Amino acid sequence: MRVAGVMSGTSLDGIDVAIVEIRGHCVETIGFTATPYPAAVRAAILGVSNCPTHTANISRLNFQLAELYARAVLAAVKRYGPVELIGCHGQTIFHEGRSNTLQLGEPAVLAERTGVPVVANFRARDIAAGGQGAPLVPFVDYLLFRHPRRTRVALNIGGIANITVIPAGCAPDDVVAFDTGPGNMVIDALAREFSAGKLNCDRGGKIAASGNLNRPLLDDLLRDAYYRRKPPKSAGREQYGVEFLARLRQFGAPLPDLIATATVLTAVTISLAVRQAVPGPADLIASGGGTHNPQIMTHLAGFLPGVAIGTSTDHGIDADAKEAIAFAVLAHETWRRKPSNLPSATGARRAVVLGSVTPGI
Question: Average pLDDT of 163-175?
Answer without folding.
Answer: 96
